[in-house]
Amino acid sequence: MIAATAPAPGLVDRHGRTISYLRISVTDRCDLRCRYCMAEHMTFLPKSAILSLEEIAVIAERFIARGITKIRLTGGEPLVRRDIAELVKRLGHHIGAGLDELTMTTNGNALAQHAPAMVAAGIRRINVSLDSRDPETFRYITRHGDVARVIEGILAARDAGLSVKINLVALKGLNEHEIAPMLEWCIAERLDLTLIETMPLGQIDEDRADRFVPLTAVFDELAGRFSLVRDTHRSGGPARYWRVDGTQTKLGLISPLTANFCDTCNRVRLTTEGVLYTCLGHDDQVDLKTILRSEGVDGLDVALDAAMQTKPARHEFDIAAAAPAVARHMSVTGG
Question: What's 165's DSSP letter?
Answer without folding.
Answer: E
